Amino acid sequence: MRQVDWKLTERQLAAFAVDEPHWLPALANASALLWQELDDVNWVGFYLSGALLEAGLPADELFLGPFQGKVACVRIPWGRGVCGTSAMRNQTLRVDDVHEFAEHIACDADSRSEIVVPLHAGGRVVGVLDIDSPSLARFSAGDQSGLEACARALEALWS
Ligand code: SME
């Protein structure tokens, strides 16, 4: 498996946020970049709080954002699934075996492990970066810190 150059990836994501300050195209390219750079993954994308998307949408629900991979569930309530739990706890969740995580929502039956990193604006969680793999325990502690740095770079979109 290729080793990701996290410093380079973080810089590229930061550049997306500078080049295009609207989150929609920037996150679309961010999902494509991470999809290109990470081996052994079957889904890379974003779930975003309704509050970020449009006035009137529920802030306590996550909506499907830009992604790469198979068709996925459209809405995830705050506190549900790995994504909603990560958003509610404001904490990265690195799940080595999704079948052992009671709350896991199976969008792609091939997924075996998953990492979810919260995204913030104004000190609040406004969405998550979600990555799935068909392999057990695909994501290392190094991947976690690399992806957390990537998330911080993307948060420039909302600063
Ligand atoms: N597994 C996620 C749902 C989203 S898919 O992985 C794309 C969850 O449990 O929140």
Description:
Strands 3-2-1-6-5-4 form a six-stranded antiparallel beta sheet, with helices on both faces. It has 159 residues and is an alpha+beta fold. The protein has five helices and six strands, in the order ααβαββαβββα. Helix 1 (6-19) runs antiparallel to helix 2. Strand 2 and strand 3 (75-77) form a beta hairpin. The longest helix is centred in the first third of the chain and has 15 residues, at 23-37. Bound molecules: methionine sulfoxide. The site of methionine sulfoxide has 14 residues, from helix 4 and strand 6.
Compose a concise summary of this entry.
This protein is an alpha+beta fold. The protein has helices at residues 6-19, 23-37, 50-53, 81-89, 141-154; strands at 43-49, 61-69, 75-77, 93-95, 113-121, 124-133.
What is the helix content? 25-40%
Whole-number total of structural domains: 1
Shape: globular
Mean pLDDT: 96
Q: Which second-level CATH architecture applies? A: 2-Layer Sandwich
Helix/strand-derived class?
A: alpha+beta
User: Uncertain runs with pLDDT below 50, 5 residues or more?
Assistant: none
Distance between the termini: 35 Å
Instruction: List each distinct ligand once.
Output: methionine sulfoxide
Total of helices: 5
Q: The biggest beta sheet, please?
A: 6 strands, antiparallel
Per the CATH scheme, the topology name is Beta-Lactamase
Number of strands: 6
